């Protein structure tokens, strides 16, 4: 992620309210909370877009890689906006780019950038499988043209 993204660069944007318990001893969001928010944004959007719970699909996306770059402080009681887009869509995996924006006055300030890779597996055998058609269809719907 070489250039600083803007909220408008993300086809999916979800509001997230921070909680008192999210703050660490320094008064800002604990690092692990960012990962929880990113995971919830991805899976909440997928469930909403497909109409199927992530636990009810014939294949499950498991996290194979994740990262977060922290750029500005966020803490309770901030409400943030999280943008979601596709970096890469493969046969068995998808790489998401996420960005967390904090409202400062009338501006959306980039607070964190995330990267999340889901690899799809069979729930019983845990062998990798193709992304299910219902999921692929919604992912393709937010992919930028090549």
TrEMBL record:
Entries under Pfam families matching the protein: 4HBT_2 (PF13279)
InterPro entries assigned to the protein according to its UniProt record, in alphabetical order: 4-hydroxybenzoyl-CoA_TE, HotDog_dom_sf
CDD domains recorded: 4HBT
Protein keywords: Hydrolase
Family designation: Belongs to the 4-hydroxybenzoyl-CoA thioesterase family.
Protein name as annotated: Thioesterase family protein
Organism: Nostocoides veronense
């Amino acid at each position: 992620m070489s250039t600083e993204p803007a909220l408008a660069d993300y086809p999916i944007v979800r509001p997230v309210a921070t909680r008192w318990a999210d703050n660490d001893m320094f008064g800002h969001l604990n690092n692990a909370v960012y990962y929880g928010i990113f995971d919830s944004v991805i899976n909440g959007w997928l469930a909403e877009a497909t109409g199927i719970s992530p636990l009810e699909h014939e294949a499950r996306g498991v996290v194979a890689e994740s990262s977060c770059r922290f750029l500005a402080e966020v803490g309770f009681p901030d409400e943030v906006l999280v943008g979601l887009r596709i970096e890469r869509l493969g046969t068995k995996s998808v790489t998401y780019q996420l960005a967390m924006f904090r409202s400062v006055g009338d501006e959306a300030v980039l607070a964190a950038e995330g990267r999340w890779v889901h690899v799809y597996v069979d729930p019983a055998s845990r062998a990798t499988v193709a992304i299910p058609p219902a999921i692929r269809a919604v992912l393709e719907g937010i992919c930028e043209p090549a």
